[in-house]
Structure formats: C-alpha cells, structure tokens
Amino acid sequence: MKPTRRLSDADAASPAGHICRGEAVGHIINRTLKPAIAATSVAILNPPERQLNDDASQAPLSADDLRKLDAYWRACNYLSVGMIYLRANPLLREPLKPEHIKRRLLGHWGSDPGQSFTWVHLNRLIIRDDLNVMFVSGPGHGAPATLSNSYLEGYYSEVYPDRSNDETGMLRLFRLFSSPGGIGSHCTPETPGSIHEGGELGYSLSHAFGAAFDNPDLIVATMVGDGEAETGPLATSWHSNKFLNPVQDGAVLPILHLNGYKIANPTILARIPHEELEALFIGYGYKPYFVEGHDPQEMHQKMAATLERCIGEIRAIQQHARASNDTTRPRWPMIVLRSPKGWTGPKEVDGHKVEDFWRSHQVPVLDPATNRKSLQVLESWMRGYKPEELFDADGRLIGELREIAPKGERRISANPHANGGRLRRALHLPDIRDYAFEVKNPAATYQSPTAVLAKFLRDVIRNNMTNFKLFGPDETASNKLDGVYEASGKRWIAETKPEDSDGGALAPDGRVMEMLSEHTLEGWFEGYVLTGRHGLLATYEAFVHVIDSMFNQHAKWLEKAKQELDWRAPVPSINLLITSLVWRQDHNGFTHQDPGFLDVVTNKSPEVVRIYLPPDANCLLSVADHCLRSQDYVNVIVADKQPHLQYLNMQDAIVHCTKGIGIWDWASTDEGHEPDVVMACAGDIATMESLAAVEILKAQFPDLKIRFVNVVDIFRLMPDTDHPHGLSERDFDSLFTRDKPVIFNFHSYPTLVHKLTYNRTNHENIHVHGYRERGNINTPFELAIINGVDRYTLAIDVIDRVPRLRDTGAHAKNWLHDQVIESVGYAHAEGIDRDEIRDWTWKA
Amino acid sequence: MKPTRRLSDADAASPAGHICRGEAVGHIINRTLKPAIAATSVAILNPPERQLNDDASQAPLSADDLRKLDAYWRACNYLSVGMIYLRANPLLREPLKPEHIKRRLLGHWGSDPGQSFTWVHLNRLIIRDDLNVMFVSGPGHGAPATLSNSYLEGYYSEVYPDRSNDETGMLRLFRLFSSPGGIGSHCTPETPGSIHEGGELGYSLSHAFGAAFDNPDLIVATMVGDGEAETGPLATSWHSNKFLNPVQDGAVLPILHLNGYKIANPTILARIPHEELEALFIGYGYKPYFVEGHDPQEMHQKMAATLERCIGEIRAIQQHARASNDTTRPRWPMIVLRSPKGWTGPKEVDGHKVEDFWRSHQVPVLDPATNRKSLQVLESWMRGYKPEELFDADGRLIGELREIAPKGERRISANPHANGGRLRRALHLPDIRDYAFEVKNPAATYQSPTAVLAKFLRDVIRNNMTNFKLFGPDETASNKLDGVYEASGKRWIAETKPEDSDGGALAPDGRVMEMLSEHTLEGWFEGYVLTGRHGLLATYEAFVHVIDSMFNQHAKWLEKAKQELDWRAPVPSINLLITSLVWRQDHNGFTHQDPGFLDVVTNKSPEVVRIYLPPDANCLLSVADHCLRSQDYVNVIVADKQPHLQYLNMQDAIVHCTKGIGIWDWASTDEGHEPDVVMACAGDIATMESLAAVEILKAQFPDLKIRFVNVVDIFRLMPDTDHPHGLSERDFDSLFTRDKPVIFNFHSYPTLVHKLTYNRTNHENIHVHGYRERGNINTPFELAIINGVDRYTLAIDVIDRVPRLRDTGAHAKNWLHDQVIESVGYAHAEGIDRDEIRDWTWKA
C-alpha cells in the first residue's frame, strides 16, 4: 500500500487528485487538522478546471479542424431532424412541400444536438489517441443522435443493409424512424453501439460502470440526462466510483447533459445555483468540468479542450495506478455540458420559445404538413445545416468528413463491447460433484443450501478472476454465502480502517460487489453481462421487487435481441438468487414476506425467463451450474439460506433438476400404480412440509397410495405449447393423473400455480397451498400453519379430498386438528427458538 | 416576488442563506461574475457552523440539564439492550443469570443509541419552544430506540396497556420484542409515533416531506441511516427541498446518522473525505452541521447547541418567508451525526472490535446464555447505565426524568400526525355529474377519458387547496391532465425563468407535484396520506413497476393497521391512475408495454386493494369519485389518455361502476335468454374491440344470441369467499353461464383472469385474450391483432367456440382472416397515422 498522502499533496502530485486511503483519513479529518482541510477544500472546490473553461486562449482546434468537426455535427443534426419530419425529399434537393412531411410526427429532438456534439468530439480523440470508447445514451428518447452517428460511421448500414449509405437508404432511415414499429425514438436493442435501453430512465451510469469493470482499456462515455438524473437509481449510481478499481477496470466518463428540461418541466439540476451543482459532484467524488454556452464555435473549442483534459486525466490516473499498483480512489473527471435544449433548432415558433425550452423536447415545429409558415420554419431550419455541403450526389457523407470518423471497431457504433456476446468467454466452472453435500438417506440431515453453494461459487470466482462477479446488497454474509470470501474479498475503493479485515475483508480487487442499492447492483450486473461477462446476484426475496422494473426491461431487451436481432450475439444470463425466503421471515415479520417476484417473472416472454426452486443443497448446485452455463436468460433461483433437510445425493439431484419435475419414489407409496392422491410441491420449505405430511399419512393410512411429485422448474407446469420447458398434455396427465386429487404445496402465492395450470385436464382437482397476505405470525411453523402449507393441514386436505378417506379419516382428522392447535399454542410461548420449533415439528 | 439578491448578500442577510430566485441567477452565473462566485462559494462551503462545532465554548446545557438528559438517554439505551436480551430480571435486581437471557437473540442494537440521543435532544427543545415534532426513523431495524422513547413517554402503555409503565410491563415489552411475531425489531405500523415502516429502506426522507407538506407548524425530524442513504430512492429524495414551500409547508430536519456501518460493511458516506461529504449536502441544497464524536458529555453539548441552532434557523426561515410571503428556496439546515455504531455498547468482544464496527449492528454479545464471560460482559454493559438510578421501585422512570419528557400530544410518540387518520378531513368533492361527457348514443363519439377527469380534478384541487395534491413524474400534461392547471400550477421552489409561465405554470404554491422520480412521488404521497391528507398519482402504466415494492409495503402497512390496530384511525387511500396504456404504445414500442402491475396488486390482501378498469370517461369519473371518498385502500385505476369511444351517460356509468360488472343490454342480443356466447371485457381498449366484434357477429349471424358483459371492478371475478367484492357462485354463473363459451377480452396479461376465475363453474370455457410479450408492432391495431385482442380474432374465436357456428361460420371466418391480413398489410404502409388507422378499423 502506498504511503498516505494529504489531499492537497495528492492534488499537487498528479493531474487527478487521489483521495487518500482511509487508514489515515481518520487522522486527517480529525479536529486538529480541520483548519488545514478548510483551506484544502477551497482548492478542491475551485479547481483549476474552472480557470480552464474561462480561459479563452484554450482553443485546441485549428480552423480547419473546427470547420470539419462542426460540419460533421451539422450532418448529425440534419439527419436527426430528417428522421423526425421527412418521408420524401431527404436531401432537400427540391423545395420542401407538405407531401414530404410525415403524417404522424414522433421522436425526440431536444437532446439530440448535445449528444451528437459529444459523440463527434469523442471521435476526434478516438482517432488522435486510438481510444477504445463506448457510448451510453442516458437521455432515452434521443435516439436520433445515436442513429445519426451510427449511420454516418457506416456501421448502421452494415447491420441493416436496407438503410444503405446513400440517398435511398437515408430516406428509408427517415421513414422508418418512429414510424410506429419501425425504429424506436429511444435507444433500443436494435440500435448498434448501444447496451442501454432508453425507455425507462435511471440506469445509464450503473450500466456504464458494469461495462467498465474488468475492461481496463475501455472508456465508457456516458451521457446522463438531467431528467434521468432526478431518478433515484441514477442519483445513487454516481457513487459507483467507490467500486471502480483504476488498475483492473476501465474508466467511466460521465457527461451530465444539463439542457435544462424534461417533457414539460425544467430539471432540478438546471435550476440550482452553479456552486450547488459543482458541490454536488465534488460530493459524489468527481472532478467536474463545465462546458457551458450556446455559440457552436466557442462550444467546440471548449468541448475539445475539456475532453482532451479529461481523457488526459483518465490516462494519467490509470498510468499512475497501474505503474504503482495504487488502487487509491482517484477523483475521476466528469463533464457538465450545459447546452440549450433543442440546440440549433428554431428559437421561437408561433410566439412560443422553443430552443432552450421544454417545447423542443419532442417535435419543435408541430404542423409543417398543414401550415405553410411552419413548413417554412422547418425548411429554413434544415437548410441552415447546409446539407448540400455535407452530402455528395449519392447522398453519402463527403469524403473529408468521413475521414474524421474512426474506422473499424474503433467506431463507437461498432465497438464490440456493445455487442458483448461477441466477446463472451464461457466460464471455467469446477465440477459440482466436488461440492456435493453427502446424503446417505433422504430427509435425515440438515444443511444450509446457500452455504453449500458458497463453496462452489468460491471456486467459480477463483477460476474466473476477470469475468465473473458476485453481487449483493450488503447481504452476502447474511445470506450464508460468505464462504466465497476465501477466494476474494469485497470490492472497496474508498477509505479503509484496520478492522476492515475482520470478517469478509474489503479489498480493492475484491470480486464481491456489495452496495446497499439493488438498483445499482442490477444495473452493474446488466452492464457486465451485456458486455459479455458473467455473474450472480443474491438478494432478499421480499426486496427483489425493488428491481421489478429493471428485470422487466432487461427481459424485454433479451426477447428483442434473441428473437429478432441475429447480429446480436447471445450474452450470459442474469442469474438472480432469491433467498432469505418468506417461510423463515417470522422474526422480520410481514414486511419481509413477499414471494411475488415470480408472478412478475412469469409475465415475461417464455423465451427468456426461467424459474427454479431447488428443494435442497445438491439440487441448488445443479441448478446454479446450469444457469451459469446458460445465455440470454434471466434465471431466477429460489433457495433459502437456513439449514434444511437434505434429500437427494448429487447424482439424483442432477437427474432430477435436468428433468425439472419428477416423482420421488422413495417418498411415494403408489409403486407405479394409479395413486389415490398426488402430493406435489415446489420450494424447499414446501417440500419439507409435504414430505412430513406423507409421513403422517403413511402412519395413519398404510394402504393409501400416494404419489410424491417435486417440481424444480416451475415452467414444467405450463403446456409445451406455451413455454419451451412446458410438459405435453400427456406427460402432465401421466404425472398428475386425469382425475385424482393433487395437493400442491407451493413456495409462493398459490394462484401462480393456477395461472400456470388452469387449462390442464385435471386442473379442477389441483388444490394449491401457498402464501397469503396475513399478519401476526409467531414462528416459522405457525407461519406455515396459518397459510396452510404445514404438514397437518396438508394431511387434512388429503383426507378431505380422497373419497375413501372421508369416513375412515375422521379420527385422524381430529388428531391432526389437535396437532395444529397444540403447535400454535406451543409456539405462542415466549422465547422458543426457531431451531427447536423446527426440530420439534419435524419429529412430531 | 422579492427582488433578487446575490447569494452572498442573502447569506449575510438572514440566518439561513436564501438561494436567489432563478430570474436573475442566470446573470449571476454568467462568465463575468464567476470570479465573484468562486469567492462566494468559499463562504458557502465553509460556513460558520463549522466554527460552531469547533467552538468548545458552545455549551448550552447546564450541569443539571446535562445530567438529566444523559440519564434519560441511559434509560433509553438500557431498555434497548433489555429488549434484545432479557426474558427475566428486567431491572437487574439480582445478578444476571443464564436463565434470564432469551433463548433466541434478535433485534438491532447498532443505531439505537444514536437515534435515542437525537430523540431526547428533540424533547428538550419541544418543551423549551413548545414545538410540534414528528420523528421518522430511517434506520429501519433500530426500533428499540423508538420503542424505548415511546415507552418512557407513557404513550406506548396507553396504546398497549399490557405493556404497562412498571416492572411487569417492562418485562413484557422485553419478552415480546423480537420474539418472533411479537414486536418487530424495525418500526412497524404497531409502533406508536411512526408513519414509516422500517423494513425496506430508502423512503424516510420522502415520507418526511410528504408529512411536512401543508402542515406549516410541523417539524419532521428524520433520521436517515447511512445504509439507507445508499439506496436510489433516498439518494434523490434529498432534492425534495426544491418542492417544499416555506410559507405553506412545515419543515423537515434531516439527521444523517453516520454511524459508519451496514450489516457487514462500512457505508459509503462514512468512508469519503469530510470535504466530499460536506460538499454533497451543500450540493443537495442544505446547510450541513456536523455533530461528531463519541464522548457522551461532549456530544450532548454539541448536539444541544446544534439542534438549537437548527431549530432557530428553521423558525427564522419560516418567520421571514411568512412575514414577507417570500417563497424563495431557503438553505434548510441538516445535521450529520457521526457517532459510533453501537455507541455505549461493548468495545470489544472475544478479541473482535464491536462498538464503532459492524459487529454491533445486530446483537453485539452473541452467547450470554451459554458463555459465562459473555454474560459478564452483558451484565457489566447493562449495569453501566445504572438502572437503579433511573427507575423507581415500581420500575417506572423516576420523576425528575419524567419531567424532561414532553406531555400530551407534544410527546413525539403521541404526535397526532403520526396517526393521521385522526386528523383526516373528508374532501370537498364537486358533483361528478357536472363534468359528465355527453353520450347520446353509445359508441358514437370519441373523447380522452383523462381529459374529462382533468376538469373534475381541477375542481377537486380548487375545493381542497390545503389537503389534496396531484402527483406525477413530469407527465401531467402528457397524460392529458393539464386541465388541472386552471386551478393550480406545478410546485416549484427553485430558480425560475420568464418562459416558465408558458404551458402549465411553475408556482411556489402549486398543488401539482412533478419530479422525475416515481419513488419520491410515491413516498411523498404515502407520507401525505399517512398524515391524513388526500391525493392521486398519475403515471405511465409500464413504469409503475418502478414502485412495485413501495406499493407492496404500503399495502402491508394498511393491512396491519386496518386488521389489527384499532388505535390507528383510517387514512385516505392511495389512488394510482395508471395511464398511457399498453395498447397505445405502438410508437414507444416494446419497452413501454407492460400491464403487469395488476398482477402485483392482486397478490396483496383483498382487504386493502382495489382495481378498476373504467371503459369510458364517465365511468372514470364515477370510479375516481368513489376512490377519493374511500379510505385504507390502494386503489388502482386503469384508464387511457387517448381519445376513445364513449358508451355510457353519467347515470348509467354510476350504476354500472357501482355494480362493478354488468350486462350491457344495448350491446347484447340474448334478450335475457341463455346466450350462445358471452362476450366479456375489461379495460377501455379491450371493450372497444369486443364491441366491434359483436357488431361483426351481428351482421354475419343475425340469430346468434350474444351476451355482452363489461367488468369495471376486476375483483368481482373472484369468489365472494376470497374477496369482499367477489361475486357469489350463483351470481357469477348467472352472468357467465355454467357451460357457454366466454370470450373474455382483457386489458392486461390473460393469465390474470384465469388466476381470478380458476375455480368458477364455467372456467374451462373462459377463453381470455390479452397482452403477451412480443415485439415488432406497427400500429395500435396491429398490436391488438398480434395479441389477439382485436375484433376479428375475437369474432373468429366465437365462431370456433359456438358449436352451431363451426360449420355455418366457415365463410365468415375466411372473410375475417382476410381482414386481419389486410389490416396488418395496410398498417405496414409507412406514414399512416394512428387516428386514421383507428377510424378505419372501427368502420371496417
């Protein structure tokens, strides 16, 4: 570790002020040094870059460079306007007429010029320094900027040959754009060069950091919309810099696009004093540079100088860190680009301010097809870009402008990281058999499934130190996955203290990513897999709902990419381990009981979602192994962290999980015949209670023919016509019979099973037990009883449903009812611990 | 409006520096003034409060005050420890023995001392200044602090007489605490004085601002956990200060509890340099005060001085604003309390650091029941608080300490705002008949339902200018609710520009709350209703999933409060208007198509959730009226913003919505007889398509007996045994028949209808059409066709399902198939606008 330096020293020593490592920071921030810091902070908060921006002599662009760069930018802007308006006459070869205008005007103009402005300036430095740059477009509905650049770079036409690099192709691009169902007006999976869906807002920065992790040469330039910046997920994702290792990871260069407006309102960050804005980003740990203005010529010089400086600082930070293996958190640069909304568009239309106002957010001139004056405004706006100087007779960008765009994979639109499946390397996975929990007899021993998984994950990490990450919101240890710390610590690029090595150690190169923000974790994870790497996110069941919407959007991305976009290579799956399950949330209570994420998942396309409920540790291993090998899915694994009974040895577990559903002969009494009743179950706790019910029934009714069916892969319940994992009608009927009662004990809300099986032959005999929203629970077993997923209630249900037991079972029913009452009564006694209850109930 | 002042002037002029209103800020931040600002920002970023904290002479507490205050705090801490550990010997009247220790140790100690510390200091100023203070406890699992204080203030025993204010009651409190199912270890609805559920983290500040809105005399002291502070929702909710009007609203005093650790990790904010932390909160627009240290005596003086100063500033800000009607955004004070985690607990246990480390997050001493040394550590820790000096012979807090707690409703635990139903005033609602859209003939005219609703909401606002708010994420106008701006503008307490009056005007007293953060809006809204006021939140259907988890938690809160807590008075409902619906998201595409929020809602307790799908504008009015009158629900209303056909006049709409489901005779041909087929529908677009299908069928098969059933209240589909709105088996069968085909056209995912109706007599004949995840859509009508919710596919399904049409319908089927193909083909032509398609298809 490097000797600790004072902040002011660090500032002086390197172009980017390194923040001092924590050991000594406590001292620095102590009372006696505070006056010194007060002085230091002046320097920090008024850094030299302010002078840079104010210094008119900073003009790195020659007149010729400036002319070309501006021309290229005008070409982008011209194309953006063309996409919104034109269905004919794409190059304005003739005067604009109403019939050239689209009949439905859609798309978003507001952020396009600023985004293109940034892109073309990035191009300059990509060429100059041979940079590897990705672009993440946060202001979602500004796709014309990305599309224009991608089209001008030629990559768009390579991917979509029908939108060729000539007048015909340009017209086709224009007509398809935001023609409903054509090309989206926000960045979609169809957009080359993008890993970021621009529909829902808030994830640009976390996606960017996910892309930058373990990609040391990559610079992820990220436009953050000032609207998007108001969302919670975005607001906290600035702190991702505390997890980015300057030695091993690439860089993220955030560019806050402060163009001032959302759809119909100013943005908050545009309406606070400059010094608050500056303080905010210093507070987030960045070194903010401001590029502010509206005159393109001045702005080009400012942006060129600022970007040069930022790239220089990034390189200096990385060189320093890598030369000296100093992982101290640097103060990474960022840019605040304060340019007018709808920059270069009409200043005023019909007496309303448009440029630099929310009225330029979408379509600035509303009725050019029907209003002559509007048509003139549009024509004069478009001709202002001088298309005749930008495109040749074929409609292709002129040669001298083509030259200032990067080539090949250096083109931002063609950056291979943005089609991460192309870079995907399969994980080097250890053999799960080596991690098996020994099961000699089923249901005889207890073990925590996640603790077993942890050993496997530990070695997955060891074998894949640069392309696998484990994510968790401060719960890795709580979820009993702390075995992974033997392989690697928790990523931490902030201050440290000596005691941080006690327990899972903090480490600048840790492979475990912990931050108390499910949004940021999921965003990192998505960015990481979309650039071709692997991971697993473990989180509390009740709170995975925090990322419902992110899951939805990622599943939609996968569906589009997989089903419609051959050019996108498959990416590793998102693997979500849902743990700390509802049935062990007696102590945390009602708020921590919510198994409903599965309902959200089952609504998404069957092509991209998978749900597994392994009943024990070896099944969890088998399922996890399968998921880590898969691609283009969101895999949801539901497995508790508490010790549970173990049933299957490794070989049986592999067979069982591969089938996804199966009869457990050792728990059944039907001996291959038509049973009296089917006891079905899905989920570890549900399985245990079903097995216990079978034990009770065996004792009470030795002649009863019971078939025990365990479901791991919940989509096996669906018809094969509706889901690739679905069972045919015949297979389903052969498992569940056509007319016998099925007592289905389910981990989650019971209606989910009905939703999946409503059209099965025997559906009216499927009786599902599961969680329902009720409060006031005292023990895990009482939680089971109150919800009717306990052994006694299950057994009673069997007696009620099997005709021949209705009379003979009366005595047993009474006994079972007594057991329920006694259990609840016993549980109400204070101070009974959970394990004791569980042991007691199991033995009962 | 006040004349604009320079920031530095403002700082000099008033105790809290007012930020200058925007009109002139643009000038201030221009190039020429930048050097001046650079100087100013030094003053801002090193404000005088830093000196305050460093000034040892600031000691407002007399020796006697200090002694009592510390004793009171020790009593809180003693009780907190007692809750975690003791099942007997609550006052340590005898030496501690293993059998006095609970057999299962649960609960969270870490944040308790800091929270109680803050509470007791608030008490001092409540008494001194007769303040009206609420407390929001963000560090969720620190309920012992809230419980201790509530118990010492006596209010806890008033609410729960079995936990009386004596030794018996104390023991009962100890034993119930975190005994599974007893008293939660985080703040739950059962906690008096709390409106904030402490399970999921991230919403303390937005809840606090919601409580403060329109409560001018209220101060909401809000502990923000430094773990919680990492969540996205919390990170952006600091910006709520841009929406708080110092004239009309109360104050929020955030206290960031920087105790450094989460469950098993340091927190980010505790591991950044002091100057970054300070800059961050200045950037968020606050004036941060730091109270840092570990010595209780010093910390008491610091906290007393700092709280005095903060309360003084709040009062000064309010007096200034109210005397001069100056709504300029003030720089509200906030406190950073950097105290050790597990403060006053064991410093070290078994060689591990505990105090000031994450090991004190939950239970610091793990095994006192079985380890003699641990028992000694615990006993010596507890005796360190000197319980014998704090509690009298009866186990009651001694008199001189009782005196330093506030009395009656000034007790934080008894603050009536925290049981907001007690303060609830019914809305003054205008008569919906006055806003009716005229419908002479069904299905003859188009209208935007939300535009009609807007007029009603406009007058709801007008009539209830201090207890109703409309919330929306920058989409009020986009959702065609901009009619409300006639009554009131958009709340904005930040810089403004002259052009801001164009369109819905920004206004410091605006009743419309717009911020691009669904989390913050929902948090404000929850805080607002839990303190007894009313509102409605309108949001895009696809992105309401952003707040799935907040919805879940609020529904759970309501379920608990309503079903189990008689002492909590009913609160106004949360009303969510879901609009910009899936069926009109052809242009925004796949990402904007997600009607699955309803699945999440149907998983929650039937006692607290309601879903309405009004088919037209008058039904929307009727439903909205009903929802605004209701209490203790989450009402979800699904209604599109686009123009739709209108069916029912106001009187019929009221009757129909009151029934929630009904036969539309004018669309049916069964004339009261058993029909051949039931055409059922729910949702505006689904209803239109079903009606169109009926028109086609009438023309093709004049003898066909069709029954048309429209569903507004989706829970009518459930059995009356499962939901209070459910239909009895008999009523359901009389509507849907026992054996005839039911072609159900549904707004959302089709499986939801199966989930609700799976056990109905006629279920196997219910064929549901609805949204499925598929991409590549060109027009709204193609979206309908691809999902099979269009008129042609519905009609084809009828032909397939009605036995006697199977032969005679062959010709019609062919014709219908041709229509489908033609529609899709036609739609594929570029540039066709949506209205045209709709008109065309309707007339087809």
UniProtKB/TrEMBL annotation, chains A, B:
Record-level GO BP terms: carbohydrate metabolic process
GO molecular function: aldehyde-lyase activity
Protein family according to the UniProt entry: Belongs to the XFP family.
Cofactor(s) for this UniProt protein: thiamine diphosphate
Protein name: Probable phosphoketolase
EC number: 4.1.2.-
Pfam families: XFP, XFP_C, XFP_N
Top-rank taxon: Bacteria
Residues of the Xylulose 5-phosphate/Fructose 6-phosphate phosphoketolase C-terminal domain: 641-842
Gene it is expressed from: xpkA_1
